[in-house]
Amino acid sequence: MQDYREFLAEILVPEDTLQQKIKELGEEISRDYNGDDLLLVCILRGGVMFLIDLTKHISVPHNIDFMAVSSYGIGARETQRRARITYDLNTDIAGRNVLLVEDIVDSGHTLAAVLDMLEARKPKSLRTCVLLDKFDRREVVVPVDYLGFRIPNKFVFGYGLDIDEYYRNLPFIGVVNLERYISS
Ligand code: IMP
Ligand code: MG
User: At residue 79, does pLDDT exceed 70?
Assistant: First the structure.
């Protein structure tokens, strides 16, 4: 695989900016759910970095659980219109206050599908916490209750977000120069 520096067009959100915002989100969530039950549901795999840093800044008692959905076909650049659960929660969410933690909302299809599936399980409340919002690409209306950053329509990677399953480990959000990226 290529070193990311070969195709990094720019760093869109540097590490310190990310961490500062996540701290603020954690504090806001702590205020909003103070005295209430809370279950964070992380959507794998992209949401993992965000969940781990976010949970450290949430000062009220809460649970975490994970689910995975497939929403992209081959590689990372082709949207399927539907999401399918590939790994389900181990928690019964009926009557719980659920906060979905997701890396990015692009067309909105993935989040919309996940919200539908979870709503059917009768949680007490269901909200979303999204790190990145590619607002210009939205095809379906989805509620974003807690937002990190609104970003332009560019393909980004790092901090959980992958290009062909690599580069999720990077501590910042970078933009890909697609002419320099060699797909293998
Ligand atoms: P949506 O269903 O179009 O909203 O797509 C959401 C999913 O697409 C996210 O959970 C990501 O996995 C993936 N995705 C969308 N945009 C990007 C990007 O710029 N980089 C990496 N993954 C992305
Ligand atoms: Mg994802």
Answer: no
